[in-house]
Specification:
alpha/beta; Fumarate Reductase Iron-sulfur Protein, Chain B, domain 2; FAD/NAD(P)-binding domain; 3 domains; 5-stranded parallel β-sheet; 19 helices; 16 strands; binds flavin-adenine dinucleotide; binds iron/sulfur cluster
């Protein structure tokens, strides 16, 4: 096929549930390509020699190669190529911000002068992972080395580290504080974006290859990190404890009944299945009018979850404009379709309560955009005297997360930066001998693929360390 013919193939639309229907259920919004759509979308790839998409991918997947195989209908082979670099393609195909990574520099999008017409790399990745993962044989595990590794946390950084280390023949135990493993993939990202059965399958694979997954185990309380090395016989430790400490606005009224951190709200909804009326053991606040403070992916997830939990009106309150919003465009688009209101250039100044101490309104201020700040975005400047009241019964604060302080408080040997993130070298090694770290605990709140990439890098370094013992 010539380049001209490839460029003439229309970009394939992702089938999705009707917005009016999906706002009332938790099922996945995007339904996935058909085999023919996957083949057609992959055929749009120009097979560029320089492959700028590969340099945009944090784990350097050989994108033209997997797309070439998918274009020929060789979906299982395409999945094999992806899995050489990424262990979680069904997850990354769904939640990676491809538009700012591999798809951003795509030659096709540039030639057609529209970034939205870049090859839908993530959508093809999702298709081949969904179609062929069940047929994959279990990864081969090398003979036992007699070495023991503890992996703390069970998010994508830890899943990747545990898988690689187990395959090298080391005995790996994952310690997870929650009752269910998977990290943000299970307690944060909602079912309607990432079905939990997909995460369960990855954890199941870990168990089947021999990883021991211990839940309800809070390292720092149940056992100290140091105990694992000095008393429990572990030769090395990987820390992937993430960034689970919610930030608050520190405004009046944040302690009223009906104010939640997005973390708590999403954990109740996703991990504790609060949407499963009559069956969920942990209840959730019933809301009619909800304000979500923030403009990132977490804010979109909280707002769209509130809608599905029965709220009649959900407003995102964001102090910059839509253009500066850090959330993925696709998520904003889906939220708009579902009827979420966007109150941009507004910020909460205080939260007002009734005589029972329950939220009754948010007082907002209007903002204009001034000069660019350190993040490269124009900074919001409040307009004096622009106070207005937004009547709500629930406020969800979604302005970001810091790293969990428990391990650094109970392990003074670990070097941290001013934000409380672990300081590591290029291999992920911390200042404490025998301890590596990766993912959000190092990067601050980042992405699934970056966490996974760091887990793999640290696993390679731990394997070298164990081999030299
Ligand atoms: P986590 O996934 O945070 O996992 C850490 C695990 O460690 C948790 O299970 C925690 O319970 C456990 N733990 C913590 N302390 C201890 C301890 N002391 N002992 C034992 N266990 C412990 N990224 C994307 O790429 N795309 C998205 O669309 C996206 N959406 C997001 C939506 C939400 C709501 C959130 C919160 C994040 C989102 N992210 C997204 C970010 C992404 O999920 C994270 O960057 C990624 O999960 C980080 O992985 P991790 O392995 O470092 O840690
Ligand atoms: Fe294909 Fe785009 Fe990558 Fe070129 S940049 S190889 S067109 S996916």
């Amino acid at each position: 096929m010539t380049a001209k013919e490839r460029m003439a193939i229309p970009a394939q639309d992702m089938p999705a549930q009707d917005p009016l229907v999906r706002g009332k259920n938790m099922k996945e919004v995007a339904l996935g390509f058909t085999a023919e759509q996957a083949r057609l979308e992959a055929s749009r790839c120009l097979q560029c020699k320089t492959a700028p998409c590969v340099s945009g991918c944090p784990v350097s997947i050989d994108i033209p190669r997997f797309l070439g195989l998918a274009a020929d209908g060789k979906f299982a082979d395409a999945l094999g190529v992806i899995r050489q670099a990424s262990l979680l393609p069904a997850i990354c195909g769904r939640v990676c911000p491809q538009e700012s990574q591999c798809q951003a520099p795509c030659t096709l999008g540039k030639s057609l002068k529209n970034p939205l017409l870049a090859v839908g790399i993530g959508r093809v990745e999702r298709y081949v992972a969904d179609a062929c993962s069940a047929d994959l044989p279990l990864p081969r595990v090398k003979p036992a080395t007699g070495r023991k590794v503890a992996v703390i946390g069970s998010g994508p950084a830890s899943i990747a580290a545990a898988a690689d280390l187990c395959q090298e023949g080391h005995a790996v135990t994952v310690f997870e504080a929650f009752h269910k493993p998977g990290g943000v993939l299970v307690y944060g990202i909602p079912e309607f974006r990432l079905p939990k059965a997909i995460v369960d399958r990855e954890i199941d694979t870990l168990r089947k290859i021999g990883v021991d997954v211990q839940t309800n185990f809070l390292v720092g309380r149940t056992r100290k990190l140091k105990d694992l090395l000095t008393q429990d016989g572990y030769d090395a430790v990987f820390v992937g404890t993430g960034a689970g400490l919610p930030k608050f606005m520190h405004i009046d009224g944040e302690n009223l009944v009906g104010v939640f951190s997005a973390n708590e709200y999403l954990t109740r909804c996703n991990l504790m299945k609060a949407y499963d009326d009559g069956r969920a053991a942990t209840p959730i606040y019933r809301s009619k009018k909800v304000a979500v403070l923030g403009g990132g992916n977490v804010a979109m997830d909280a707002a769209r979850s509130a809608l599905r939990l029965g709220a009649e009106e959900v407003s995102i309150v964001y102090r910059r404009s839509l253009e500066e919003m850090p959330a993925r465009q696709e998520e904003v688009h889906h939220a708009v379709e579902e009827g979420i209101r966007f109150l941009t250039l507004k910020n909460a100044q205080r939260i007002l309560g009734d005589d029972q101490g329950r939220v009754k309104a948010v007082e907002t201020l209007t903002y204009v955009l001034g000069e660019k700040d350190a993040s490269g975005r124009r900074s919001p400047v409040a307009v004096p005297g622009s106070e207005a009241l937004l009547e709500v019964d629930t406020v969800i604060v979604a302005i970001g997360n810091d790293s969990n302080p428990l391990l650094r408080q109970t392990t003074p040997e670990l070097g941290v930066n001013k934000n409380g993130n672990f300081v590591v070298n290029e291999d992920g090694q911390t200042s404490m001998p025998g301890v590596w770290a990766g993912g959000d605990i190092v990067l601050g709140a980042a992405t699934v693929i970056l966490a996974m990439g760091q887990g793999r890098k640290a696993a390679a370094a731990i394997h070298r360390f164990l081999t030299a013992l």
